[in-house]
Amino acid sequence: MTALFGPSGNSQSFYDEGHKSTTEAPEWLKKRGLDAFEYSFGRGVRIREGTAREIGNAFVKEGITLSVHAPYYINLASTDEKKKKNTIRYFTESVTAAHWMGATRVIFHPGAVGKEERETAFGRALEFFSEIIHEVESLGYEEVRLCPETLGKINQLGSVEEVLRLCSLNRNVIPAIDFGHLHARTVGGIKSKDDYKRILDMMEEGLADERARKFHVHFSHIEYTKQGEKKHCDFKDEGFGPDFEPFAELMVERNLGPTIICESPTMMAEDARTMKDIYLKIKKAV
């Protein structure tokens, strides 16, 4: 298997070179040897069908694999009926836009624990997500997969275990493993190859199918506090982790083919290319 690499959004250098439209991004990315891109609907799905299809066609033309990120406002554990209705809408709008764009993955944040016991909140999230899966399936866009993401703050739903339990509800739900977030929520817990191994082993045991090999990845260096994530960092910012190379070694050793999206704040394309170079160097040496 071969991993795919690309950015979430456009690097500052994209705009510094005079580019303005995301329709220009695919050619720009291809020239840099990248093959994936994540389009964010973080603040809401505000896109017309015609625009979505134009963007999607530009990525198809250059052979760039496209994913989208659903609005950040999703909270599967909410008890507020209005917020629950909005959450369903965020999912259906994101999946519909993904279909228009030719994207096959919709990444989303599961939500927050709140003031309850964690297991109580997560139990409600599981039940609600099961309803959402049925709502999404009723749209008929079978090619689009939902991808719950591991989150960076301790009070958020989104540990590896929780994401895998969400994935267990339906074989079409794919884990989105954000290693920066996991590093932050464990207060610097990803330090070695063994730390990555434990995460990958959990996925293999919890899923036991192709989803444990062709999963979704977010990767960036990250600053954290005792509460977890503080902010994402570019690779050039010194003193932050986690280190990508041990994970790249495991990808080659285990023949994994994830889509790896870089979430550096300003140099996401450049850092994605750095990761791809590390991966290809290791792969060539085997």
Give a description of the structure.
The chain is of the alpha/beta class and 286 residues long. It has one domain (4-285): Divalent-metal-dependent TIM barrel enzymes (TIM Barrel, Alpha-Beta Barrel). Helices cover 43% and strands 17% of the residues. It has helices at 12-16, 25-31, 49-62, 81-101, 118-137, 160-167, 179-185, 193-207, 245-253, 268-285; strands spanning 4-7, 36-40, 65-69, 105-108, 111-112, 145-148, 156-157, 176-178, 216-219, 221-225, 228-233, 259-262. A 4-stranded parallel beta sheet has the order 1-12-9-8. It has a 4-stranded parallel beta sheet with strand order 2-3-4-6. The protein has a two-stranded antiparallel sheet with strand order 5-7. Helix 4 links the parallel strand 3 and strand 4. Helix 2 (25-31) runs parallel beside helix 3 and helix 6 (160-167) packs parallel to helix 8. The radius of gyration is 18 Å and the shape is globular. The two termini are 14 Å apart.
